[in-house]
């Protein structure tokens, strides 16, 4: 494979992505070569494109991808050529760094997935241990969202979402909508808060029990009405917005949990009432990345049609139109944008 070339979208600088011919990576004995089918555009990819990331350039973006096994290394025993797969792009060390040694594998210091991943290319080399076989009937567009769904599952666990929970999801972009569908599948009552009418309508279509535009209705009052004055068990803030966080926290029930799921760019301080947190025993936490268990759950939910990730995809564009996909993300007019690198 040393002289073999492939098409890839290489980001050289903010706003500068070029489709080029680059070498296909060499296979180690424990690796497989995946022919990429679909790769989603993640907010972290967009931040690199938009110039709000410190990642070193040039780099090939994209880490949410599915595809088919193209070749296998001599030590690979679990996969055959042509099998449909999805790849966990987080190559964790498990034993070398303090977080992994403490069981916090989602905080592995050797993993730098955000903004990278080499998925916007025709092929991608991956370790056999990070590849998940899919059923032949699995929708590969849906499967390409396994990584963001794994992140969502981690946040759901952090929030303690379960049967009978009342969950407020703030923000109905692609990630917020995944939280809506995940919470509904867990048996929770979901209240979705979003200012864009089309996205709020999408939340309703995906199963939100109540939808609220917080610029038109007081979110805390709606939550009180829906819970008999008690409040929400969990609030998941899926937007990096100071006002959204500060406006949502007052909707929590005693011993409720607010999860700051989205990063803040630029980073600004937030103001919370310490007495409310103290006397109501409020839990304030964050969520980022995912564990192996989260990824396994995500793949299972997609394959069993428990969570319909395909419903979140608004645009599928060829590899040559990655820049157009980035601009769609910038506009925030649509939902999930997925890049198609290869035909079946």
Description:
The protein has helices at about 45-50, 100, 140-145, 145-160, 175-185, 195-205, 220-225, 240-250, 275-280, 290-305, 320-330; strands at about 5-15, 15-25, 30-40, 60, 65-70, 85, 125, 130-135, 165-170, 190-195, 210, 230-235, 250-260, 285, 315-320, 335-340. It is α/β, with parallel strands linked by helices and about 350 residues long. It folds into 2 domains: about 5-145 and about 310-340, Alpha-Beta Complex (Quinone Oxidoreductase, Chain A, domain 1), CATH 3.90.180.10; about 150-285, Rossmann fold. Helix 4 (about 145-160) crosses helix 5 and helix 4 (about 145-160) crosses helix 10 (about 290-305). The radius of gyration is 20 Å and the shape is globular.
């Amino acid at each position: 494979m040393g002289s073999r070339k492939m098409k890839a979208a290489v980001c050289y600088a903010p706003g500068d992505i070029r489709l080029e011919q680059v070498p296909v990576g060499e296979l180690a004995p424990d690796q497989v070569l995946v022919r990429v089918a679909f790769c989603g555009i993640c907010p972290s990819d967009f931040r690199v494109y938009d110039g709000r990331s410190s990642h070193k350039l040039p780099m090939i973006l994209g880490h949410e991808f599915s595809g088919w096994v193209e070749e296998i290394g001599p030590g690979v025993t679990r996969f055959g050529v042509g099998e449909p797969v999805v790849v966990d792009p987080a190559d964790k060390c498990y034993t070398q760094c303090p977080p992994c040694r403490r069981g916090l594998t989602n905080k592995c210091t050797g993993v730098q997935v955000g903004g990278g991943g080499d998925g916007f290319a025709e092929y991608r080399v991956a370790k056999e241990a990070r590849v998940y076989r899919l059923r032949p009937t699995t929708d590969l567009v849906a499967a390409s969202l396994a990584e963001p769904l794994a992140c969502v599952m981690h946040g759901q666990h952090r929030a303690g979402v379960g049967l009978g929970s009342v969950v407020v999801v703030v923000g109905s972009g692609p990630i917020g909508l995944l939280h809506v569908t995940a919470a509904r599948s867990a048996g929770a009552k979901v209240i979705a808060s979003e200012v864009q009418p089309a996205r709020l309508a999408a939340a309703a279509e995906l199963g939100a029990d109540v939808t609220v535009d917080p610029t038109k209705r007081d979110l805390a009052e709606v939550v009180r009405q829906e819970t008999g004055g008690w409040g929400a068990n969990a609030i998941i803030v899926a937007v990096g917005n100071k006002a959204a966080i500060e406006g949502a926290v007052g909707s929590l029930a005693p011993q409720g949990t607010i999860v700051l799921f989205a990063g803040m760019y630029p980073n600004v301080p937030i103001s919370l009432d310490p007495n409310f947190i103290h006397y109501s025993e409020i839990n304030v936490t964050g969520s980022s990345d995912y564990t192996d268990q989260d990824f396994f759950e995500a793949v299972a939910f997609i394959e069993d049609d428990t969570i319909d990730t395909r419903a979140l995809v608004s645009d599928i564009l060829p590899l040559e139109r990655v820049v157009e996909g980035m601009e769609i993300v910038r506009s925030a007019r649509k939902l999930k944008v997925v890049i198609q690198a290869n035909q079946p």
